[in-house]
């Protein structure tokens, strides 16, 4: 791999072609690149050949490794060096041999080229000598035979015959070897042959073209310019006369030979096959991709006639695919192939010859032809495989030449380009700063951000360009002092990164910059600059903290110290510090450390220099001076702060020197040399420690001074044993520095004395507070002293102490114990706290103090524990237990005894009693009792003692009537406090209506032997009572009748809208009772719908969407309402709650909701049943308005039920056909509804407000299918009676019969309704049919069935079904002045019930019909517009104008014959329908105008009757033609009276005349309306005139011709004319008109006048007078022109002209 990379780096760019390279006609020698077969090995052996086993860099690094590791390693390195040396020698020899062979081939090629040119110059006058002479190879004369044999290679002498040394030829004999023979002419010569088709160019032209083509092929990719050819006009340079060869022909003989050759070729001339002719030749083969042109009939001469020049654009023969062969994404060592296809574009088979590329990187394989013989048929292709074997990743360009029969060569370019790699390495690499002689390593990240991989080499700028990069990139580092870069050779894939390491080793204190070149394997070069700056060490002492004390005069000091620092006097072991700031003036970090040395004290005289022997370096041993930080790094250009510390240990003076030493300071480098190479940096080789600064320090010491205040402590009074006593004192430090102290502790068997804190530090001139702690062990007086030791002080300090101690004391927490009131049989216990307030343990005992008469076993007091040992400053609990034996007032005394201390006495008291409770009232009287309703009363329990007493009431009553009643107590049990009372609530329930008097209740008291007895007395019980009322209505409480209560739902209840009313049921008693409520007639049996979401099945996991939930809820509500109205009565009253229980004194709110699905006035009763009371009837009434029907197209409209849809018929043509719309009406009710429709027209100017409608009989009677009225009877019952009550589940019976229904209370008795029932308002009277009715309503419009109408006018919509009506609109017929009219109307639908039973239910519902109801309204809108089309012309003049010329009627059939041909002038216009309605029309006009068939477009249709239907917003193109014929010219001479309408003759001032034709384009619409489009045509006429009406020649000599001219003028249209000479006397033969026929046409644009000059010749035949008339005839001019001619012949010589 390294060898391959080196080979790539050897060729940075393509070498320009040498001037000595041979031409394309000779054999091209192979170069080192062209013979490179590495790609063959790479494609065959793949990784085995291209894999990098051991690279050059690896081998070089192995040789340079440090020896001495082991004997085996040294032996391996030695053998490796020998192998590497042998390998290098072989490589050098191979490179030398390869270079020698390449140079020999180049010299041989140059020699052969010179020989070829010399032979070419010797042969003159021959077009092509290629093939006549073969230049012998000169390679064997240029290569070193011995060198080849020495390297075991084959030399040319091994395979070539032995040749004699080349000797220059003798003088040539006149011989022309280029003389063509017959065989040469027919088979070998490339000179064009005469075949009778192609003109043969001259020989000079052929040679020039050949040279041009050769030059273009040879030097196209080369940067060198070929030598310019000599032109005939240039003078040749003066050269020596060319020597002639032996037997060479003379020039004359050569010319004769050429002439004989030409004669021979003429004898063999034959017609050439068209396939061998160029495609652009006249007889050549036509191209398949270009249209054929008509051949020009022209005669060509065989010789001497120059052919026409070929066209500029040559005709292609072959087409290349691809047109440019492009290679991308290639690598070295591989071969890439692309197929080149050449397609024959001519109509005959063709030969194709492909010349290989000129560069060695591209090659071409053998062609694959569709047939045999290398011939490509028309339209077929031949294919060539183009191979590319790059030796580097550079860009390559070449071409392939395709030779055909074409005049020009066909070139296919070849391009090889790959996207270059891009490095992220910056242009400038800044290494920063480094000390002179040092080495600095800097790393830079280098990433390939390009799209392809690359191998890169970094070399110095001065080494580029390099002849061979192998030697440049051998080392790992590439060096250009003071910089070195590694790696010098690296490979990066796309996106891959590596680290480039730069080594900087400056030698001078200046900024350095070097330029390196980065060379890529794709032959791209980039320069980068590396910069760095060398520095010298420069340190400076900026300042010293504190006062600077210079050395005293005469004071000894160090010989070499730079600076002096003195510390102030201090105590031993104290610390003094000074801060020194040292500045680093270098841009680098400097590692340092400090050394404390002894001073070199040697007295010197002023100006004396210390000797080196006096300067010695010895470390200081006293260790009193310290520097912090002792070591570290000085930041670049940064101030470093150092802390100098002085710590003396003894009372004496100290003197030292501090050396600042820099570590690893490089030595100054030697002088730079050209052959110096970068050596590895070794530790200690060229770096060391350097002292850069010396600072002299001095210091002195003095003793400590300490004082106590007070010097002795005396504690007055007595101190408890084991109790600590504290006293305060101070210690003063008057020393130069702080002190450390430590107090001794006195710890004897009896006492403890100590000081806190025992150790510490006191600053200079400050005091410290101490705490003396004294603890005694036994009662006595103590006098002693405490000792304090001062650190580094020669003697301690003492403190005198005097104190007295005493014994311990025990105390009780309470002085006495009182157990208070106690219940006999119980025991009481209390806890006492015994405390030892001293530091001593106390032994104690406690017991009852008994009289001598008392026995210890009969005691009632027990103490636990009765004795023990109490620790110092501790406490313990003592339990005292009292157990009384009888009721008494108890008193006694407990005695506390302390060992070696003072005891105390504790008094104990108690009061012992038993419980006693009573009732304050022994009887309870209850009034206002209700059966089964609990009655409450209260009794009082009183506790007569101070003891809490527990009571409990028995649930079972006692007495004779105890089974007829029950009682409960609250609370049933409890505890009474001392002397307390409590109220007991007694709930007594009687289950009989008798008086209760023999009942008692018992209460047990805990601790009492007998219970307490309570007597109960009760009066007679009462029954249930209920009242009804309306909410928010104040009713009279005395009026208990519910008949006055009315639930009025309103007089304007909207249909299908639920209305809810409320009423209240109040229980006046405490008796609970069940209740039921339901309607009497309009009953319903359904429960209130629950939430739909709660009914969802458990397997539905996802919650419903809000919209879905709402939709489901609406659907559930609709199903619920439908179930309520399923009985078909039109209304239903839903009661909630309809059942329940009415609690004691409870008021229940009842919601009554009315649901309806049909209009009417409703009345009904609400039946309320509470407990055992009789049912109560509540009156309900409401009036429902609205329409139950709805239209399918709009759906139900809850808010506006009577408003139907708005029908928009749109815009229609005036007088058009009737348009109908269908409307579907749905009836969701259970009754058939009849609708009678009326249509009205609305006039905006109508000022009428109301309509008075008088109706006799039924307003809308029943009609049959034909619309005739059907008689029907009135709605009545047969016997005039109606039923009083209705069964809940029975439907009404048929009309005309009496229905008897059972009563709700008495099922067998029937009752008839009287007139009182009608007057009472409970039931309505039967509806009587009105004979005459008057209605007043708002005015809505004028009743009319035109233009709107509805069929059928009367329709019955079945129940639960639908019907359809048809709304029709008949467009109005507008007058001529009206542009557009809007038709606004409406339709009213009046509803009636088709069943008389549905119209009225006596006493329950009455429904209005017809005019009594608000009708259903449908709004009707339409517009009527006239039929008008928008006419769009090219010119907006309002007239479609035609211009024609009468001259276009004539056509020249031959030179003397004319024919008349009629023609049409066509104009186009657009007809656009701008309305919203389709228009049907047909077109027409009058001659001479003709309407051509309209051009159908999208939106138009044409019927068989030649009418066109144009859709809205669409247009149609109409072509109108003006038919010009010769008959139109007949109107020119007609008088104005006889001329047809619209035809007029227009004369201009210049003699021009025009015929104007005016007609109209007629647009006939389907509604018989007519639209006119003006048409106008102007026909230019021809006007002829002569410049003179007569010509008189006078006298003319007989036989002599006289000529005169006359001008024939034409105005207007051009025309053909001819002249005729007429003479009555036969004299026409002496006159002649020239020309006698012609065309008069103006040659200029926009000029209508033209002139023709006529020559009139007169040749008299005899001496007399001649007369004739010239008649000018034209088919376009009705009246011919005449020219009178006159002349006289004479023999008089005077009239004869010379």
Automatic annotation (TrEMBL):
<feature type="domain" description="Deleted in lung and esophageal cancer protein 1 Ig-like">
    <location>
        <begin position="318"/>
        <end position="410"/>
    </location>
</feature>
<keyword id="KW-0969">Cilium</keyword>
<feature type="compositionally biased region" description="Polar residues">
    <location>
        <begin position="1287"/>
        <end position="1306"/>
    </location>
</feature>
<feature type="region of interest" description="Disordered">
    <location>
        <begin position="210"/>
        <end position="240"/>
    </location>
</feature>
<feature type="domain" description="HYDIN/VesB/CFA65-like Ig-like">
    <location>
        <begin position="808"/>
        <end position="910"/>
    </location>
</feature>
<dbReference type="GO" id="GO:0005929">
    <property type="term" value="C:cilium"/>
</dbReference>
<feature type="compositionally biased region" description="Acidic residues">
    <location>
        <begin position="1307"/>
        <end position="1318"/>
    </location>
</feature>
<dbReference type="GO" id="GO:0005737">
    <property type="term" value="C:cytoplasm"/>
</dbReference>
<dbReference type="Pfam" id="PF23277">
    <property type="entry name" value="Ig_Dlec1_1"/>
</dbReference>
<dbReference type="InterPro" id="IPR059041">
    <property type="entry name" value="Ig_DLEC1_1"/>
</dbReference>
<feature type="region of interest" description="Disordered">
    <location>
        <begin position="13"/>
        <end position="35"/>
    </location>
</feature>
<dbReference type="GO" id="GO:0008285">
    <property type="term" value="P:negative regulation of cell population proliferation"/>
</dbReference>
<dbReference type="InterPro" id="IPR033304">
    <property type="entry name" value="DLEC1"/>
</dbReference>
<feature type="compositionally biased region" description="Polar residues">
    <location>
        <begin position="23"/>
        <end position="35"/>
    </location>
</feature>
<dbReference type="InterPro" id="IPR053879">
    <property type="entry name" value="HYDIN_VesB_CFA65-like_Ig"/>
</dbReference>
<keyword id="KW-0963">Cytoplasm</keyword>
<dbReference type="Pfam" id="PF22544">
    <property type="entry name" value="HYDIN_VesB_CFA65-like_Ig"/>
</dbReference>
<keyword id="KW-0966">Cell projection</keyword>
<dbReference type="Pfam" id="PF23316">
    <property type="entry name" value="Ig_DLEC1_6th"/>
</dbReference>
<dbReference type="GO" id="GO:0015631">
    <property type="term" value="F:tubulin binding"/>
</dbReference>
<feature type="domain" description="HYDIN/VesB/CFA65-like Ig-like">
    <location>
        <begin position="421"/>
        <end position="531"/>
    </location>
</feature>
<dbReference type="InterPro" id="IPR013783">
    <property type="entry name" value="Ig-like_fold"/>
</dbReference>
<protein>
    <recommendedName>
        <fullName>DLEC1 cilia and flagella associated protein</fullName>
    </recommendedName>
</protein>
<feature type="compositionally biased region" description="Polar residues">
    <location>
        <begin position="213"/>
        <end position="224"/>
    </location>
</feature>
<feature type="region of interest" description="Disordered">
    <location>
        <begin position="1287"/>
        <end position="1318"/>
    </location>
</feature>
């Amino acid at each position: 791999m390294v060898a391959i990379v080196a080979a790539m780096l050897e060729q940075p760019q393509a070498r320009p072609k040498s001037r000595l390279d041979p031409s394309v006609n000779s054999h091209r020698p192979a170069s080192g690149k062209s013979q490179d077969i590495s790609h063959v090995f790479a494609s065959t052996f793949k990784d085995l050949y291209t894999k990098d086993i051991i690279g050059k860099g690896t081998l070089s690094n192995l040789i340079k490794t440090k020896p001495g590791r082991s004997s085996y390693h040294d032996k391996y390195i030695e053998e490796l060096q020998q192998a590497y040396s042998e390998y290098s020698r072989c490589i050098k020899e191979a490179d030398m041999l390869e270079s020698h062979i390449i140079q020999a081939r180049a010299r041989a090629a140059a020699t052969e080229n010179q020989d070829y040119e010399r032979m070419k110059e010797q042969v003159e006058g021959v077009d092509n000598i290629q093939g006549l002479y073969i230049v012998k190879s000169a390679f064997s004369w240029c290569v070193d035979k011995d060198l080849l044999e020495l390297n075991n290679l084959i030399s040319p002498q091994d395979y070539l015959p032995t040749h004699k040394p080349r000797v220059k030829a003798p003088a040539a004999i006149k011989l022309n070897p280029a003389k063509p023979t017959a065989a040469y002419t027919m088979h070998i010569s490339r000179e064009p042959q005469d075949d009778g088709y192609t003109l043969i160019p001259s020989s000079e032209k052929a040679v020039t073209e050949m040279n041009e083509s050769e030059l273009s092929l040879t030097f196209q990719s080369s940067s060198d310019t070929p030598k310019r050819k000599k032109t005939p006009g240039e003078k040749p340079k003066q050269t020596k006369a060319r020597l002639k060869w032996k037997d060479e022909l003379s020039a004359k003989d050569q010319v004769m030979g050429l002439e004989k050759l030409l004669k021979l070729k003429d004898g063999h001339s034959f017609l050439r096959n068209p396939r061998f002719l160029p495609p652009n030749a006249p007889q050549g083969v036509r191209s398949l991709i270009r249209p054929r042109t008509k051949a020009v009939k022209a005669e060509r001469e065989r010789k001497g006639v120059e052919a026409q020049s070929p066209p500029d654009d040559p005709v292609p023969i072959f087409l290349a695919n691809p047109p440019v062969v492009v290679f991308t994404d290639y690598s070295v060592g591989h071969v890439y192939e692309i197929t080149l296809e050449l397609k024959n574009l001519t109509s005959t088979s063709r030969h194709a010859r492909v010349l290989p590329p000129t560069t060695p990187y591209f090659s071409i394989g053998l062609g694959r032809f569709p047939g045999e013989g290398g011939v490509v048929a028309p339209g077929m292709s031949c294919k060539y495989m183009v191979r590319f074997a790059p030796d580097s990743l550079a860009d390559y360009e070449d071409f392939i030449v395709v030779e055909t029969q074409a005049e020009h060569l066909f070139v296919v370019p070849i391009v090889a380009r790959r996207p270059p790699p891009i490095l992220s390495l910056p242009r400038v690499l800044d290494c920063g700063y480094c000390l002179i002689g040092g080495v600095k390593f800097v790393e830079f990240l280098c990433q390939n951000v390009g799209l392809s991989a690359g191998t890169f080499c970094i070399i110095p700028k001065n080494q580029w360009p390099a002849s061979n990069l192998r030697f440049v990139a051998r080392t790992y580092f590439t060096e250009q002092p003071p910089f070195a870069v590694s790696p010098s050779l690296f490979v990066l894939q796309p996106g891959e990164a590596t680290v480039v390491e730069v080594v900087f080793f400056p030698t001078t204190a200046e900024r350095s910059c070097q330029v390196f070149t980065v060379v890529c394997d794709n032959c791209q070069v980039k320069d980068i600059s590396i910069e760095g700056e060398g520095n010298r060490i420069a340190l400076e002492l900026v300042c010293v903290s504190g006062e600077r004390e210079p050395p005293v005069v005469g004071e000894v000091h160090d010989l070499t110290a730079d600076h002096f620092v003195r510390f102030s006097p201090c105590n031993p072991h104290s610390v003094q510090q000074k801060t020194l700031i040292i500045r680093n003036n270098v841009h680098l970090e400097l590692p340092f450390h400090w050394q404390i040395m002894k001073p070199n004290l040697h007295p010197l005289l002023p100006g004396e220099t210390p000797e080196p022997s006096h300067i010695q370096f010895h470390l200081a041993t006293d260790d009193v001076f310290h520097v912090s930080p002792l070591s570290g790094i000085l930041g670049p250009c940064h101030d470093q702060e150092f802390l100098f510390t002085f710590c003396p240990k003894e009372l004496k003076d100290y003197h030292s020197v501090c050396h600042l030493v820099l570590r690893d300071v490089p030595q100054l480098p030697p002088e730079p040399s050209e052959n110096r190479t970068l050596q590895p940096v070794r530790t200690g080789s060229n770096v060391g420690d350097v002292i850069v600064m010396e600072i002299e320090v001095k210091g002195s010491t003095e003793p400590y001074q300490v004082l106590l205040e007070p010097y002795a402590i005396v504690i007055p009074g007595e101190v408890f044993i084991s109790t600590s006593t504290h006293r305060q004192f101070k210690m003063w430090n008057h020393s130069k520095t702080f002190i450390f102290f430590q107090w001794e502790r006195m710890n004897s068997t009896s006492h403890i004395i100590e000081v806190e804190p025992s150790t510490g530090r006191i600053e200079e001139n400050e005091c410290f507070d101490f705490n003396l702690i004294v603890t005694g062990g036994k009662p006595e007086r103590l006098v002693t002293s405490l000792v304090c030791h001062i650190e580094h002080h020669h003697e301690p300090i003492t403190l005198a102490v005097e104190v007295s101690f005493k014994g311990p004391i025990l105390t009780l927490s309470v002085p006495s114990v009182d157990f208070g009131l106690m219940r006999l049989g119980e025991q009481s216990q209390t806890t006492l706290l015994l405390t030892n307030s001293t530091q001593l343990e106390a032994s104690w005992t406690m017991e009852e103090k008994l009289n001598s008469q008392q026995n210890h076993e009969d005691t009632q007091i027990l103490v636990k524990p009765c004795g023990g040992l109490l620790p110092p400053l501790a406490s313990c609990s003592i339990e005292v237990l009292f157990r009384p034996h009888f009721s008494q007032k108890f008193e006694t005394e407990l005695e506390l005894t302390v060992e070696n201390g003072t005891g105390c006495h504790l008094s104990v008291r108690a009061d012992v009693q038993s419980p006693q409770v009573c009732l304050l009232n022994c009887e309870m009287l209850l009034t206002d009792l209700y059966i089964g309703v609990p009655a409450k009363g209260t009794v009082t329990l009183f506790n007569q003692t101070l003891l809490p007493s527990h009571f409990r009431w028995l649930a079972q009553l006692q007495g004779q009537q105890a089974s007829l009643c029950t009682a409960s107590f609250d609370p049933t049990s409890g505890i009474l406090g001392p002397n307390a009372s409590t109220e007991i609530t007694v709930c007594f329930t009687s289950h009989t209506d008798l008086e209760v008097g023999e009942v008692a209740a018992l209460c047990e008291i805990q601790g009492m032997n007998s219970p307490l007895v309570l007597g109960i007395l009760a009066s007679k019980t009462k029954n249930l009572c209920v009242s009804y009322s309306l909410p928010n209505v104040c009713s009279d409480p005395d009026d208990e009748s519910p008949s006055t209560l009315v639930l009025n739902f309103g007089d304007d209840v909207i249909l299908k809208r639920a209305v809810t009313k409320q009423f209240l049921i109040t229980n006046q008693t405490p008796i609970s009772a069940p209740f039921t409520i339901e309607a009497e007639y309009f009953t319903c049996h359904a429960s209130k719908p629950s939430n739909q979401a709660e009914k969802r099945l458990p397997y539905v996991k996802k919650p419903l969407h809000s919209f879905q939930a709402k939709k489901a809820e609406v659907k559930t509500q609709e199903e619920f309402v439908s179930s309520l109205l399923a009985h078909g009565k039109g209304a239903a009253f839903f009661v909630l709650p309809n059942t329940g229980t009415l609690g004691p004194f409870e008021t229940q709110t009842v919601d009554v909701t009315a649901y309806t699905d049909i209009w009417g006035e409703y009345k009904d009763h609400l039946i309320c049943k509470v407990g055992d009371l009789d049912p109560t009837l509540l009156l309900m009434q409401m009036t429902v308005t609205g329409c139950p029907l709805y239209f399918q197209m709009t759906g139900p409209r809850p808010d506006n039920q009577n408003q139907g849809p708005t029908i928009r018929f749109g815009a229609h043509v005036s007088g058009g056909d009737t348009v109908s719309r269908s409307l579907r009406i749905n009836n969701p009710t259970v009754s058939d509804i009849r609708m009678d429709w009326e249509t009205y027209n609305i006039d905006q100017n109508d000022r009428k407000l109301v309509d008075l409608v008088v109706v006799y009989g039924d307003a809308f009677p029943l009609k049959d299918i034909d619309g005739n009225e059907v008689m029907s009877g009135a709605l009545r019952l047969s016997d005039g009676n109606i039923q009083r009550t209705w069964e809940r589940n029975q439907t009404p019976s048929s009309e005309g019969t009496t229905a008897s229904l059972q009563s709700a209370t008495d099922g067998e008795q029937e009752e008839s309704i009287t007139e009182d029932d009608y007057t009472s308002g409970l039931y309505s009277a039967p509806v009587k049919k009105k004979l005459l009715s008057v209605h007043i309503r708002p005015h809505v419009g004028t009743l009319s069935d035109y233009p709107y109408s509805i069929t059928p006018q009367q329709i019955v919509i079945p129940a639960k079904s639908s019907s359809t009506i048809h709304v029709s609109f008949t467009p109005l017929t507008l007058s001529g002045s009206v542009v557009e009219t809007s038709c606004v109307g409406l339709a009213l639908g009046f509803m009636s019930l088709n069943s008389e039973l549905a119209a009225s239910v006596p006493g329950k519902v009455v429904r209005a019909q017809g005019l009594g109801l608000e009708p259903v309204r449908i709004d009707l809108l339409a517009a009527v517009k006239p039929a008008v089309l928008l006419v769009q012309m090219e010119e907006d003049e309002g007239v479609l104008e035609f211009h024609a010329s009468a001259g276009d009627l004539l056509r020249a059939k031959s030179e003397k014959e004319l024919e008349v041909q009629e023609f049409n002038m066509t104009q186009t216009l657009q007809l656009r329908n701008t309305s919203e309605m389709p228009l049907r029309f047909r077109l027409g006009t009058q001659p001479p105008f003709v309407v051509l068939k309209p051009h159908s477009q999208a939106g138009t249709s044409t019927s068989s009757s030649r009418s066109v239907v144009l859709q809205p917003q669409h247009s149609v193109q109409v072509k109108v033609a003006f038919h010009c014929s010769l008959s139109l010219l007949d109107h020119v001479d007609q008088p104005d009276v006889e001329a047809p309408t619209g035809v007029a003759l227009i004369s201009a001032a210049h003699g021009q005349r025009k015929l104007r034709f005016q007609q109209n384009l007629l647009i006939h619409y389907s509604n018989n309306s007519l639209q006119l489009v003006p048409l106008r045509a102007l026909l230019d006429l021809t006007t002829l005139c002569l410049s003179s009406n007569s010509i008189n020649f006078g006298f003319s000599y007989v036989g002599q011709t006289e000529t005169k001219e006359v001008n024939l003028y034409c105005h207007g249209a051009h025309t053909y004319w001819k002249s005729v000479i007429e003479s009555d006397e036969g004299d026409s033969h002496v006159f002649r008109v020239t020309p006698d026929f012609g065309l008069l046409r103006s040659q200029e644009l926009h000029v209508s006048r033209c002139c023709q000059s006529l020559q009139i010749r007169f040749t008299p035949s005899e001496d007399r007078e001649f007369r004739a008339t010239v008649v000018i005839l034209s088919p376009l001019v009705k009246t011919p022109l005449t020219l009178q001619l006159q002349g006289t012949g004479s023999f008089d010589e005077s009239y004869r002209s010379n």
